Amino acid sequence: MMDVARVAEALRSMGVGTVREQEPLSRHTSFRIGGPASVFVDPDHLDGVVKVLDWVRDQGLPYFIIGQGTNILVSDRGVEAVVISTVRGLRDFRVEPPVITAGSGVLLTKLCRLAEKAGLTGLEFAISIPGTLGGALVMNAGAHGGEMVEVVESVLVWDAVKGVHRIDAAEAQFQYRQSRFMKNPWIALEAVLRLKPGDPAETREKMRHNMEYRKKSQPVGEPNAGSIFKNPLPHYAGRLIEQIGAKGWREGDAMVSDLHANFIVNAGSATARDVLELMRRIRRTVYRETGIVLKPEVRWIGPGEGGAEATWENLWYAEGGGLTEP
Questions:
Q1: Taking phi first (over 0 means left), then psi (-120 to 50 degrees means alpha), and beta for anything else, what does residue 302 get?
Q2: CA 30 – CA 72 distance, rounded (Å)
């Protein structure tokens, strides 16, 4: 068990930023779901982020990095770890056309606007993706036919062995909705994005179109974590879920969006357990009717809900899940 008071006091003594104990992560996720982090740290600057990471590594403490909290589902039991926010510490950027260098805490929407003002094109696909650059790198986020892999030149990373160093895009091993950051003990601190000269008016129009499409097709105004399942290409998860008649399905306050079937929204006071049960029901029914196994795009954070380890496959079979098939 972590000595929360001791850890919090040690972090406060570093003077790197705000430190809070037992901080509800529901305050820091787009789903508005999640139990407490044992210790929550919000460093003021890049050096502070690195200092905290070095310390938790040296102490052998579990840790987790969070930006805007999109694309994650945090256990109702919370996270017994030091949770480090990037929102303030990794928000610096430099625009040197055709390159933008930005910290992982910079919002994607802000990066898109910076590119537009600098007369650069290539990031328009990201205007409708909520969240920060860091999360987009980890997931190789994409929309409207574009992905982060197309614009990333290099990434400044912290890893538990080498410390801070830079890797090129190939080393990140970007694939569909995944990257090496999901497998290695790496934290993306900043990235160099290489774009192309473009007409600002055309860039604005593309971004306007992409935002309008998102507003019409996704539950923008309701708490959600983005797409719940990956597309089992060449199929689309949303279409498969809609075909089984799942729009409007509910478990507690977790509901399948009436606007887009691959979105689950928090219709009030949904818990992670509600979302898990709804995901299980969707996954089981799609499998029964099509033979296709849906895999989550949203990341699970925290201990298993039935005492299982924190992996999706174990969560499906966790106590109370009731599954005898994928």
A1: left
A2: 8
Residue 273, Cβ neighbours under 10 Å: how many?
Answer: 19
Q: Are 316 and 323 in contact (CB under 8 A)?
A: yes
Which stretch of DSSP H or E encloses residue 72? Answer: strand 72-74
Q: Does residue 322 surpass a pLDDT of 70? A: no
What is the rounded distance in angstroms from the CA atom of residue 270 to the CA atom of residue 268?
6
> What residue type is assigned to position 209 of the chain?
H
CA 159 to chain centroid, in Å, comes to: 19
For residue 185, what pLDDT is reported? 82
Q: What is the mean pLDDT of the chain?
A: 92
The arithmetic mean of pLDDT across residues 50-74, rounded, is 95
pTM above 0.85, yes or no: yes
Active site residues: 177, 227, 297
Q: Which residue has the tokens 């499906």?
A: 316
Report the candidate in 155, 102, 160 with the shortest Cα–Cα distance to residue 132.
102
Of 72, 73, 75, 16, which is closest to residue 40 (Cα–Cα)?
A: 16
Q: Identify the CA nearest to 121 among candidates 198, 210, 207.
A: 198
- The first and second tokens of residue 54, run together, are 């070095």
Predicted local distance difference test score (pLDDT) of residue 315 = 64
Please return the burial class of 194, using the count of CB atoms within 10 Å of its CB with bins 0-12, 13-18 and 19+. middle
Q: Is the separation of the CB atoms in 76 and 273 below 8 Å?
A: yes
Contacts of 276 (CB under 8 A, 6+ apart): 73, 305, 315, 321
Q: What is the mean pLDDT of residues 263-282?
A: 95
- 124 CB contacts (<8 Å, ≥6 apart)? 112, 144, 146, 203, 206, 207, 210
Look at residues 279, 245, 252 and name the one whose alpha carbon lies nearest to residue 263.
279
Closest CA to 71 of 224, 271, 223, 278: 224
d(CA 103, CA 211): 23
